[in-house]
């Protein structure tokens, strides 16, 4: 199963070269991940991720330039790995005809009160497991051999 997030493009997302700046892609990933983990997960399990989660790693392959337009892009999200104390989120930023970027983020459940990583709860794991697709690892660089 995949999570689909419709992400609007903003005029301010463009850089001096006339396309969406590479740093803005991280914002698009964040918006989709927050919608997935903090809206959708909490609808399924109200206590999911309430104590926090932190990003441990990002990896992005930029495949095509994205220019400003009125139509949103879709950020498709799934999991490529679930362990006891982390998840790896896979993404594609795309529209109907083009994939603009593929990315991966390692997220660690975190206890904000104690200031340390924690294990996934059973409710979190139950919510996450349908989104696991460990056959589709990203990024898949076009330059990889």
Automatic annotation (TrEMBL):
Pfam families: 4HBT_2. GO terms for molecular function: fatty acyl-CoA hydrolase activity. InterPro entries: 4-hydroxybenzoyl-CoA_TE, HotDog_dom_sf. This is Acyl-CoA thioesterase. It comes from Streptomyces chumphonensis.
